[in-house]
Amino acid sequence: MPGRKSTFFLVLATSLTFFLVVSWTLSGPRSDATFQKHADSSTAHQNDTISSAHLKPHSNPTPSPVKTPYAIGTFVGTDTYGTEDAGDDEDRYYVGARTLVYQLLHAPSTKLTSPVSIVILVTKGVRESKRKRLRDDGATVIEVEDVPHNITVGQPRWAETFAKVRLFDPKIMPYRKVLLMDTDMVITRPIDAIFEDPSSEPMNSRKNQTNRADLPLATLPEKFAIAAAPESLDRDHPYPFVDHDHTKGYFNSGLVLYTPSTELFQHYLEIIARPDLFYNGFPDQDLLNYAHRWQGPMPWRRLHFSWYLNWPNQDDIDGGMAIIHSKFWEPDLPFGPGERLALSRRWEMQGYWMGKGGSRLFNDLVKLVLLLVYTPSLLMFLMVIPQVPYAYSV
């Protein structure tokens, strides 16, 4: 009888082990977004805890979850180049957003070294499959509606770009400072320190320099903070690209460091209602340059020249420019050093996630082998269990 009892407990333990292996196999790996790590893992934001939030015209928008004082925000709109049956990876700006998130959160040479939230605003035309992939990559995705306007935008790819202005709304972006970045950006080194650039500190508005006939003053904030880099216009420029004469008053809106403000956001909406004041073909860029013109009440300030440039040359890259703007997919634009670097980053991102997928596949194969090894235990359990009552009755 002791032998039968020993057999029973052996079979019971083996079956329990089998059950645990099966449960482990079927559960699968957790989303990579759950394991996003920064320098201080105790304060790392869990970006995979929020799904898309829809901003209704007359409802309170769902804000980005505040886990950090700083955030990097970008925008992905409806793909105006692809067809309805086009694959996700044919959407160049979506791929650009994935590449940007990879550089900020995963690439060994460029990832952030301190906790910074990554927030991507999308419009309703962006597929759920793209949103899920961006969340899995580590970003927070929030759906917003376009900003109402009566402006005819010439370029189809800019049709929804006024929605980017919602990145300035503290109801959506409740952070102390936000770095707005276009998705077609290449990063060469960690950029955490940009949030401490002196040019991004608050300034007092100069309300006496606004023409009351042009715009009401009620929405002007008492203080504001906005910093950017001037347009270089072409690659034929000296290094460093420094505006010693203070003559380059038009900045590129692909990278803007600012403090979100309700008054500032409302001020932008009022300007959008007056396209005759600002619009010259570049929706959000013309808007921001008018609102923050040097002669106006809230002049923009210049970031240190080493942070960002729109049209970089080899000297800029060799000199350590941190962020460069590059549309490597545009056949009509020159393919220069920035485009070569951008293309390499794009495929680096692809390889990284393919490797992650391969690792998960290997883990699944290991689980399958263990499942096959323990399957005989289940058969033994099924054969022996009918004898258990007899074993205890003797």
UniProtKB/TrEMBL annotation:
Keywords, sorted A to Z: Membrane, Signal, Transmembrane, Transmembrane helix
Signal peptide: 1-23
Keyword Cytoplasm carried by entry: no
InterPro entries per UniProt: GNT1/Glycosyltrans_8, Nucleotide-diphossugar_trans
Protein biosynthesis recorded as keyword: no
Compositionally biased tracts (Polar residues): 41-52
Regions that span the bilayer: 365-385
Region (Disordered): 35-68
Domain of life: Eukaryota
Protein's recorded name: Glycosyltransferase family 8 protein
Species this chain originates from: Penicillium alfredii
Organismal lineage: Eukaryota, Fungi, Dikarya, Ascomycota, Pezizomycotina
